Each structure stands twice: as C-alpha cells, then as structure tokens.
Amino acid sequence: MIQPTATTSHLLTIRTPEGVFFSLPLAGPIVRCMAWLLDAVCLLAAAKIIQMGAALLGVFSQDLSRAFSILFYFICYIGYGIVLEWFWNGQTLGKRLFHLRVMDMRALPLRFSQIVIRNLLRAVDSLPLFYIVGGLACLISRHAQRLGDLAANTVVVRTRRLAAPRIDAVLDRNRHNSLRAYPHLAARLRQQVAPVEADTALQALLRRDLLTPEARVDLFALMADLFRRKAAFPAEALAGISDEQYVRNVVDLLFRR
User: Fold this and answer.
1) Are residues 146 and 173 in the same domain?
2) 139 and 29 in contact (C-beta within 8 Å)?
3) Residue environment code for 170-203, b if the CB has 16+ CB neighbours within 10 A, otherwise e
4) Which of 105, 131, 158 is the last residue of a domain?
5) What pTM did the predictor assign?
6) Which residues partner with 6 through β-bridges?
7) How many structural domains are present in the chain?
8) Sorting pLDDT into bands at 50, 70 and 90, what band is 223?
9) Where are its TM segments located (predicted)?
C-alpha cells in the first residue's frame, strides 16, 4: 500500500509498495491564504452577477429575489471549489496561479467524495472569520492540513515545474523501434495516452535502476499491459521484445516524432 512515512516541516515523504520513496513539498498557511484570496475575488465577482440577477427578480417578487440570492450564493461558495478541484485535478484558479494542488494523503487518485468533504467543511474552517480555525489547524497539524483536509484525508502540495524530459538518457536513436512500422497505430497510441501516463512511463525508465529486479519486472509488465490496451499492434511488431523494451518503444513514439 502506498503510504506516508515521514514528514518534515516542509516535506511529505511517501513510500510505494516497491520500496521507492519520494517527497512532496507541502503548502504552508501563507501561500494557501494567498491562493484563497484570489479565489475569494472570483467568488465576489460571481456574487456581483448574482446580485444583479436578484435585483431583476426583485421587480416581480422580493421573496423570490431573496430565495434566488441565498440558493446561488450557496451553490457558488461550495460548488466553486468542488467543480474546479474535480475537473482540474485538485486545483482552483488560486491554486493554479500559486502552483498548489490538492491530493490524496497516500498519493492515490483524488476521489470526488474527498473533494466534496473538504469543501463542505470550509464553513467550519472559516469560523469565526477569515479562516482562523483552518489556519490554526494548518499550523498545528502534522501535514499542514485544515479540518476539511483531515476529514477528507487530503493534503495541499506545491507542484514542481517539470524540466524537459531527458529522452536521450533512456532512448537510443540508433535502436530499431518495430512500432514505427505501423504509423496509423502509432498515431492512435498518441491520441489515447494521457500526458500523465506518458510522463510516468518516462520517469519509470529513468529510475529503473533504483528498483529491485522483481519490482522492475512487475512495474513494466503493468505499463506494457496498459499501453497494449490503448493500441493493439500486430504480433510481429512485438515479437522478441520484453515488456520494458515495449514501454521504451512506446515512449520513443510519444516523445519523438
């Protein structure tokens, strides 16, 4: 099971089942507050639009106008974070600008229920005003989590800007790639593979010597199976190559044209 193993004041260290450790920089209260302020500006702009709509409804009925305002204020306040964090993989406008991201505590895919829980508990974290409860929770919690993060088992991390991939470190320009003989299938593979899947395959090749032999075989078998389901190359294109070499050929197709 992927699990957090240790935390410094700024890093969360996670251990994978293969025995690989990696660290994620945690976002502190100050940068999270700055991201929240930007999100608050967006919510104020939405509130202004709602206010204009309520004013128009007020011509017909004041009760309808008040009901409209209360309902849509609530939808914007709660739905803003839920919708953006779900579709932007843990980011809102503020988090994206400050390079922050919500993620599962164990580095597993973020579930919709986790996003809903952490956003519903904003009402508690914001008490008594200006997120005092949430800010104090971030300061004293081990992983810089507010109450919503503790309930949802999530953390907010800083996203690193990725350097250009070191293609030549894992690919030999002179090596024959049997997959290139089928350009229509190569094009389909490029369409089907998500950027995160391509980057994961590249990083696995870059770090293959850090894995135990058993973990290395299992990891590349899983990756090869994933890519084979994306595009079915004929048997003659796969004859005599290992799963690791197949993944290497796929990475060659994805990163080199």
Assistant:
1) no
2) yes
3) bbeeeeebbbeebeebbeebeeebeeebbeebbe
4) 158
5) 0.62
6) 13
7) 2
8) very high
9) 34-60, 67-88
